[in-house]
Structures are given as structure tokens and as C-alpha cells.
Design brief:
Length: about 375
């Protein structure tokens, strides 16, 4: 054990081997001098430290668990009872003084480091401080929010629906029966079990859920993710986004459908686009259409419209009476129109993206552009 006075190892009793009694060897005055000398010693060592590691070592030597102060405190019982208090107090004062000196030295060293950096080569006080990197909204989120705003301004409600659906909602209630050939066009992911749960292949099942929960007249849009079990290429992915629309009211006609679709296109492309309807087959609408819009990118044909000057954008139609029935409505009283906008395709058109797989690829270099 290093003696606080001599710095040599020893016990309190060998600190003064000439003395006869313990009380003589450990006088109060003696411990006073001891702590004073120790403090002077500690301060000198602390001041001599040029870096934080060295300072830590010195700190440990004096106020660490096995340090000088700890040893002094541990030896208190070797002092006569009337002196113990004074020794304890002086040990604690020593501890505080050492800690303060260490703290001051830390401060000085830190300031010196900054000063040295400032003098160093390459320091430029005019450079902006490093900033945290900010992310941005995914282009799909941006377009979804824009369209939600647009539809809400027209009195539509935004709905959500489950991504794992029952066979009933995804197919059956939408007039696509078990042996219906239209199931072939929906390459379905079946969940484990008896095949009654599927990853929804479109957002249309929420039409039925809306009919079941809301009272007509109603207007809803349903943005969301859908899944198809198909091999991927530049224009097909196993997961993509759609926005379903459903309006149910009395006396709904194709004119209402076309009007709503034109408003939608104006919202997306910021101008009026000529539209045309072609017949399209979807079991849950009758009549069903493919609604094309004039290519917003060219006058004379381009890569996007495949030189046809029309872009195919919106499958839609008047709600099939069987769908209304499945939703508990009387088709003689109520009618409606529905549409299924391909959000992924829309984002690709808007930003001239040539491969749908970029959208959910999770590559930050791609996403940083939006
Ligand atoms: N659900 C159809 C699909 O994913 C798209 C669709 C077509 C939705 C016509 C509709 C509609 O609401 O009326 O292939």
C-alpha cells in the first residue's frame, strides 16, 4: 500500500517505526501534512498531463477505487478515535480538491484541442456545420396525398382496407366466382391454409366493405398496396399501388363517371385532357370501360403513349347489380360507378420512370431524387 507521505508501500504503523505507540505514529497533525503533501503531488502530476488518457491514469491513482484517498479512508480505524473524524474530513477534502484539479485540466486540454484544430490546415470557419440528412416523401406517398386532397375536396371519404383479404371480398362478392375465368388474370398469392385468405390482388374488395359499413349515397376512395404473383419486369412488380373509387347514389350514369374522371385527370396533369372510353371487361362493373386520356406529353406520338397519342389510365364502369346486392343494396334503387387508378403507373408517368421495380426497390439513390 503506498504511503501518502513517503509514497512507499507500508502500513500506517511502519510509517514511523521509531514511535512506541500507534497514537504517536498517527497524530492528527501528521495526517494533515500527509493530505497536504499528497495534494501538492497530485496537482503537479495533473498539470503535467498532456492528454485525457494520462489524466485518467492520474485521476485513478489518487481518487480511484484503490487510490490514495480510498486507502487513507480505509486506514481510519488505525487512528486513535478522537482523530478519526479529522482524518476522514481531510481525506474527503483531498478527494474534492483532486477532482476539481482534474476537471480544470480536462477543460484546459479540451480548449487546447479546439485551438489546435483551428490553427490546423484545412480549417475553414466559413463552412456550414454538418447537418442531419433530411429524407423526403416517397413519390407514391406524394401522389396519394395529392389525390386524397383532391377527392376529399369533392366530398369523398378516404378509406383503408386489409391487405390480407378473404376470398369472399377479393373475388366472390365482386361477382368473380370460384370458376370464373377472370380469376386467371389475378395471379394470386394464397396465404397458408385452406386458400380462403389471399393477399388482395386489387383495392376493389374495399368496395364491398364500404357498401357494408356506409349508408348510401356514398363516395369513397381507397389508396393502397396490392399483390400479384407474377414474374417481374420493367412494367410488372409483385407489389404495387392502386386507388379505388366508388360512388353510389340514385340515377348514376356514365356521364357522372366521365365527369369525375376528367376532374381527376385535371388534378393530376393540371389541365383538361380529352378522354375516350373503350369497352373493358371487369366482372364487377357493367358496362365496363378502359378510359384513355390524350397523351399529356406529346402532340404527335411518343415513347410514353407508344405513338398512339392516347394513354391507357383508368379502368372503370358502372357498378354491377350483383355487387350492389352483395353490399346489401337494392340495384333498382341504387346505382354507382367505380374506377381503379393505377397509382404506381401514374407515378411512373409523372416522373418518367422507366422501371416499376425502382418504386419499391428501397434504393436511397433513387428516392433522393424526389
Ligand atoms: N380491380 C381492377 C384490377 O385491379 C381494376 C378496376 C377495374 C377497378 C374497373 C374498378 C373498375 O373499380 O371499375 O384489375
Amino acid at each position: 500500500m503506498p504511503d501518502p507521505v513517503s509514497g512507499k508501500a507500508g502500513t500506517p504503523s511502519d510509517a514511523d517505526s521509531n514511535s512506541d505507540t500507534r497514537s504517536d505514529t498517527r497524530s492528527d497533525t501528521r495526517s494533515d501534512t500527509t493530505t497536504d503533501t499528497t495534494l501538492v503531488d497530485a496537482q503537479a502530476k495533473i498539470l503535467a498531463c498532456d492528454d485525457l488518457d494520462a489524466l485518467k491514469t492520474v485521476e485513478r491513482e489518487f481518487v480511484g477505487k484503490q487510490g490514495v484517498v480510498a486507502q487513507l479512508l480505509a486506514s481510519i480505524s488505525d487512528y486513535p478515535p478522537e482523530q478519526r473524524r479529522g482524518v476522514g474530513q481531510r481525506a474527503n477534502a483531498l478527494k474534492q480538491a483532486v477532482q476539481e484539479a482534474v476537471h480544470n485540466r480536462q477543460q484546459t486540454l479540451a480548449e487546447a484541442r479546439v485551438a489546435a484544430e483551428r490553427q490546423g490546415e484545412g480549417f475553414d470557419a466559413s463552412l456550414p456545420p454538418p447537418r442531419p440528412r433530411r429524407g423526403s416523401l416517397h413519390p407514391l406517398t406524394q401522389v396519394t396525398r395529392e389525390l386524397e386532397d383532391l377527392f376529399q375536396s369533392m366530398g369523398y371519404t378516404v378509406l383503408d382496407g386489409p391487405e390480407i383479404e378473404t376470398d369472399y371480398y377479393n373475388f366472390e362478392a365482386l361477382n368473380i366466382h370460384a370458376d370464373h375465368p377472370a380469376r386467371d388474370s389475378h395471379d394470386t398469392f394464397f396465404c397458408e391454409g385452406d386458400g380462403h385468405l389471399v393477399m388482395r390482388t386489387h383495392t376493389s374488395p374495399v368496395q364491398i366493405r364500404a357498401l357494408e359499413t356506409l349508408k348510401p349515397p356514398l363516395r369513397v376512395v381507397v389508396p393502397g398496396k396490392v399483390f400479384r404473383h407474377e414474374s417481374t419486369d420493367a412494367s410488372h412488380d409483385h407489389t404495387f399501388h392502386q386507388m379505388e373509387g366508388l360512388v353510389v347514389d340514385r340515377n348514376i350514369s356514365v356521364a357522372h363517371l366521365v365527369g369525375a374522371m376528367k376532374t381527376l385527370l385535371r388534378g393530376i396533369f393540371d389541365r383538361d385532357l380529352e378522354v375516350r372510353l373503350r369497352p373493358g371487361y371487369f366482372p364487377f362493373v357493367e358496362p365496363g370501360f378502359e378510359l384513355d386520356a390524350r397523351c399529356p406529353f406529346c402532340q404527335e406520338g411518343c415513347r410514353v403513349c407508344k405513338r398512339t397519342r392516347w394513354i391507357e389510365l383508368l379502368p372503370c364502369g358502372l357498378v354491377h347489380p350483383n355487387v350492389l346486392r352483395a353490399g346489401g343494396l337494392d340495384p333498382d334503387e341504387w346505382g354507382g360507378f367505380a374506377f381503379g387508378l393505377g397509382l404506381s403507373r401514374l407515378v411512373m408517368l409523372r416522373h418518367n420512370i422507366d422501371d416499376v421495380r425502382h418504386l419499391l426497390g428501397g434504393d436511397v439513390r433513387f428516392l433522393e431524387q424526389f
